Amino acid sequence: MKNPDKLFEAFTIYIQSKGINPRKKFTVGEIGAILDECRKVGDIDIKDSNSYNYAITGMFANQKNRDYFSFLNKSIPKELTDIANNTNRDNRKWKKIYEQEELYINKKYIKVNVNLSKSDKMYKEGRKILVDNHMQIERNKKVIKNAKALFYKKHKRLFCEICGFDFEKAYGKLGEGFIEAHHINPVSKMKDGDETSIEDIMMVCSNCHSIIHRNIDIDLEDIKKIFK
């Protein structure tokens, strides 16, 4: 993954952790400030300032066919691409000239980044089993355990991917290590032999989890819109 792609990933992770609506209108400067904060706390490991600012230019530009953002001024991506491709460029031009330019996250990347836990490993679920004389659909406990572990390893904490709630921050030691996990593909609709990946598991707080299950077919982005 190239540095501009790492920056975009860090930006989307940040806004999700803070419950910021990904469909809101941003400015270049606002996104730059978020990335500066991520870099300050160590979420972005680009030490050299020139490389960092060049990566920001590349993230906003169409360089290497990137299309992470939709600018209100359609000419901006090409201008930034020309800057990125110029060996004599000023790497801070993205801020000096374009800081107030307005843009949206390209819609095609919003759903892709709903879930922050990723792994290629698959877990079988969906088998019907008899429990206390009632048929239940089998869940794989390992996928939940491993999804939480991977999420924590990546973010150094557990928080709700819908609203950003952190049990440990709210409850201290009592809330340490606690979060609920939601199957994006409902277990109730699974068939024997269906597979679940860690990417299909979403970290959620108890409130958001309950709301999701009031209408299992609801678009998770519709719930996230509540938190701005």
Task: Give structural attributes.
228 residues; alpha+beta; three-stranded antiparallel β-sheet; two-stranded antiparallel ribbon; 9 strands
What would you say this structure looks like, in words?
- Strand 5 (128-131) and strand 6 form a beta hairpin.
- It is elongated and about 55 Å long.
- It has helices spanning 3-17, 28-40, 49-60, 76-84, 93-96, 107-110, 141-155, 167-171, 206-214, 220-224; strands at residues 26-27, 69-71, 102-105, 122-125, 128-131, 134-137, 180-183, 194-197, 201-204.
- With 228 residues, the chain is of the alpha+beta class.
- The protein contains ten helices and nine strands.
- 40% of the residues lie in helices and 14% in strands.
- It folds into two domains: 3-110, no CATH class; 122-224, no CATH class.
- The protein starts with a helix and ends with a helix.
- The strands form four sheets. It has a three-stranded antiparallel β-sheet with strand order 1-3-2. A two-stranded antiparallel ribbon has the order 4-8.
Q: Largest sheet at a glance?
A: 3 strands, antiparallel
Alpha plus pi helix count:
10
Taken as a percent bin, the fraction of beta residues is: 5-15%
**Strands ordered across the widest β-sheet:** 1-3-2
**Assembly level:** single chain
Straight-line N-to-C gap: 29 Å
Helical fraction = 25-40%
What pattern of helices and strands is seen along the backbone? HEHHEHHEHEEEHHEEEHH
Number of strands: 9
Structural class: alpha+beta
Low-confidence stretches: 112-120, 125-139
Mean pLDDT: 82
- Describe the global form: elongated
Using the CA coordinates, give the radius of gyration: 20 Å
- Counting structural domains, the number is 2
